Amino acid sequence: MKQVMVETVNARDLYRLVDQRAAADATNALQRAGGPPSDFASLVPGWIRELREIASLWPDSGACTVATAMKLWLWTTKYFRAAENAAAIDELNDAFTPLFAARVFVHEAIIDDDARRDLSHVYAAHASAAAATTCAELVFGYRRHLVWDAEGCASCFAADDLDDLEGFIPGIAAGARGNTDVVEADGSHAAKRGPCANFNGLDTFMRLRNRVDACLTGSRIAKDRAAAAIGRS
Q1: DSSP 193-217
Q2: Pick the residue with more confidence: 20 or 155?
Q3: What is the three-class DSSP state of 170?
Q4: Strands 182-183 and 157-158, sheet pairing
Q5: pTM check: above 0.90
Q6: Are 74 and 186 found together in one domain?
Q7: Cross-strand partners of 157
Q8: What SS3 string covers 28-71?
């Protein structure tokens, strides 16, 4: 038992060291690049295409992950510009800096060895996941949550309607109660804040958000390789 615990602690220490080295390398790359240019938003579409091309040649560099995160960031920025929400735009601009650092780190890593590309992949995953979280927090955080009123319950099932349908579709009443919001005949409902929040008008955002998550594929494998390399050094 003691031996297993020691190995676990050592692995965690190695993972932390990988994160630290990846962040340090990305910071140094960012400093060498001088940070994002003042008009960087207009350059993002070109950077996305560039990163996709890099990913086709160096798939383990994290380039594709950063490209997807930038696409989500760009959609979110346009969304809040249309809403004239300056506070959200400022926060999104701050969230972009790690993505830019990941981009320039990718450029440096692809001309180095596999170990550097693993670190690039690790940082790309962290930066992309963090940016995606910021985008989701802003997009959903600025939407009003539904409450148990006439407007909020417009999307709910009425128990009487479900009971009527039960004769035609056996099991629908129980199924709906387990998967959607139902208002019973006496007006009672599930004990929670209100009907579940929806994704109305956010289909593109959700598709991109899910793609960022999927683009994290392989990043932990890269982290394992980097940790093993450090452990051998």
Answers
A1: SSSPP--TT-HHHHHHHHHHHHTTT
A2: 20
A3: coil
A4: parallel
A5: no
A6: no
A7: 182
A8: HHHHHHCCCCCCHHHHHHHHHHHHHHHHHHCHHHCHHHHHHHHH
